[in-house]
Amino acid sequence: MSTPEQPQTRSVWKRRAVIAAGVIVLLVIGYFVATSFLPRWWSHRVGDQVGGTFRWGIFWGLVYGVLCTLVPILVARQAIYRQLGWRGKGWIVLAAIVLALPNLMTLGIAWGSGSGAHAGQRTLDDQAPGFRGATLAGFIVALALAVLIEIALQVRRRHSAELTALRVDKKIHDARAD
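Structure tokens predicted for Permease (178 residues):
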């Protein structure tokens, strides 16, 4: 004998199954787009920007390497030090990933083994010489800058705490002297 709740439960599970199947199909399509279309598209955008010269390839590689590494690191750092819930931290990390996408797409071209990555490599070699190497150099510079910024902030925090303790000690000393 079935209860009136069973048909509702079945329809909920059917709806969830359809949604899950749709998400899986979208993920598979997204994977093929990401591995085939995006490397070609990104390499052509960079090639158009660089115009086939080493000077502009190195310049734009350094710009993308530094900015698309340093800014996402500083944004992601906010998820660690801010008093936010998991949802807020997730949005901050997602924003950092979006800001790092140019570097991630260049990395996908440089290390990728698919036909889209190989086409992107050929395009960057021809239309944006020096871009990949300069992006790597900019990435390394940005990592070093991020480490230096973090060290400076930690030293500042420690000195601020020490200064506050000294001020409290001085007030206590002054109060006893009176």
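The CA atoms of residues 81 and 104 lie 25 Å apart.
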